[in-house]
Amino acid sequence: AQRVTQPEKLLSVFKGAPVELKCNYSYSGSPELFWYVQYSRQRLQLLLRHISRESIKGFTADLNKGETSFHLKKPFAQEEDSAMYYCAGQGNAGGTSYGKLTFGQGTILTVHP
Amino acid sequence: DAGITQSPRHKVTETGTPVTLRCHQTENHRYMYWYRQDPGHGLRLIHYSYGVKDTDKGEVSDGYSVSRSKTEDFLLTLESATSSQTSVYFCAISEFPSGSYEQYFGPGTRLTVT
Fold first, then answer.
1. b or e along B23-50 (b: 16 or more beta carbons within 10 Å of the residue's beta carbon)?
2. What is the domain count for chain B?
3. What is chain A's percent helix, strand, coil content, to nearest 5?
4. Range A4-112 classified under CATH 2.60.40.10
5. Greater confidence, B80 or A1?
6. Over the stretch B56-107, which tens digit does the pLDDT of each residue have?
7. Which member of A30, A34, B48, B113 has the lowest number of beta carbons within 10 Å of its beta carbon?
8. Hey, of B23, B32, B89, B103, which one would you mutate to test binding to chain A, going by the most A CBs within 10 A of its CB?
9. What does the domain layout of chain A look like in residue ranges?
10. Element spanning A37, H or E
């Protein structure tokens, strides 16, 4: 089965420090990968998708096929970045996937003032 | 936000009672999903639908059933609620297969089973 792993349940940094949220996947081929963010008691919203290669709210994520990683990075964390972050990937490598996503366990990021 | 609503937003119920959660979308997307969110487990797929009256099980489907009689509504039923089903439930929709795998989420329903 396809897996998405986020090894850190909690991550704390101070404002202005760099932050990296780790994500590893176990897909073959060229998976579609995403980062979702959930602010306190709000719905999940898409932060980044690897195919668009864009920077949102200062966050970037690079797909490293050799290391099967899709880590989320920001050079200078802000207090408003405090949230739950989920890494997600397509549910099946091929065949009929029905658009399913597999989510990691999530990482709670806290940015201290 | 994509046009997705969930009702009720909060519910407290007793063990053994049936509960139905509703997801409503105005995007006319074919694919819909129900997840539960629990600390330490992330989001886990309960059931999904790939069309009207077309549904299938996800990874944690025991104790849950779903129905989809029209494109815009996807119902999740807890047949006999248990305390282990206390959770936050999210509905999601997807443009798949015409679009990417990106999913759009509803606001969630916080369910407490006492």
1. bbbeeebbbbbbbbbeeeebbbbbbbbb
2. 1
3. 5, 45, 55
4. yes
5. B80
6. 999 899 999 999 999 999 999 999 999 999 999 999 999 887 777 789 999 9
7. A30
8. B103
9. 4-112
10. strand A33-38
